């Protein structure tokens, strides 16, 4: 541990900084570098600051990891808490600090020897999630027709009145395209032919886009007659808590 007197005059400190810049190759001067954000100057330490508990002579010390520091620093106030206090002598090397924080600091070399930090020589490029990348990553979700592999039972309300909707007219220009698409849906097992009378009939809605012909149903009256099970949909926070075992 080094014990040096701190000069409290601002003009003297300014002259020392200039001397550091001019004599940066002086081997007898060691600097403690620290970068702090603007918002951090007048506030408490943020979560981005890294502390580690290191035992020094069987005494636990919370060191602040500072890779900009060339030395390890333990304040005198910290050593005075120990039961067995080591001998303290004046430091032969000038240790200069740019902050007023009197916290134990673990320098770059000690951080590397203790395995607390690691030099990375590789830069990972994280691609931006575009619609094309999402489609490529989850190709099984966006391929084919989404179908349930079980029979779904729809329960209607008691005393519900069946509704038969009048068929909508299909433009003559797309008759063949609609018929071809209906046959494809029958072959794929999406729909089936109904050749007998039914109590419920919904409108067929045809959407003719430039890419593909879409055929849908408009079961508005039937939706009002369906008896829905009351099941609360869990929120995202509840699902995350459940996945974490909470």
Automatic annotation (TrEMBL):
One of its GO terms (molecular function) is RNA-directed DNA polymerase activity. Keywords: Nucleotidyltransferase, RNA-directed DNA polymerase, Transferase. InterPro entries: DNA/RNA_pol_sf (IPR043502), Retrovirus_Pol_polyprotein (IPR050951). This is Reverse transcriptase domain-containing protein. It comes from Trichonephila clavata. The gene is X975_12067.
């Amino acid at each position: 541990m080094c014990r040096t007197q701190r000069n409290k005059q601002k003009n003297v400190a300014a002259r020392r900084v200039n001397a550091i810049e001019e004599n940066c190759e002086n081997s007898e001067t060691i600097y403690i570098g620290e970068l702090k954000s603007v918002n951090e100057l007048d506030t408490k330490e943020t979560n981005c600051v890294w502390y580690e508990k290191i035992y020094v002579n069987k005494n636990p010390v919370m060191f602040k990891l500072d890779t900009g520091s060339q030395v390890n620093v333990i304040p005198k106030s910290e050593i005075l808490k120990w039961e067995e206090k080591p001998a303290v002598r004046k430091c032969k090397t000038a240790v200069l600090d740019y902050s007023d924080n009197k916290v134990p600091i673990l320098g770059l070399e000690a951080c590397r020897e203790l395995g607390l930090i690691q030099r990375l020589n590789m830069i990972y490029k994280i691609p931006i999630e575009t619609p094309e990348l999402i489609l490529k990553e989850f190709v099984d979700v966006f391929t084919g027709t989404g179908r349930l592999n079980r029979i779904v039972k729809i329960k209607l309300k008691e005393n519900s009145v069946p509704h038969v909707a009048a068929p909508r007219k299909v433009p003559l220009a797309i008759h063949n395209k609609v018929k071809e698409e209906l046959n494809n849906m029958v072959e794929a097992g999406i729909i089936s032919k109904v050749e007998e009378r039914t109590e419920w009939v919904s409108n067929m809605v045809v959407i003719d886009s430039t890419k593909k012909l879409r055929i849908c149903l408009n079961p508005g009256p039937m939706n009002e007659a369906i008896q829905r099970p009351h099941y609360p949909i869990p929120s995202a926070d509840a699902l995350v808590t459940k996945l974490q075992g909470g």
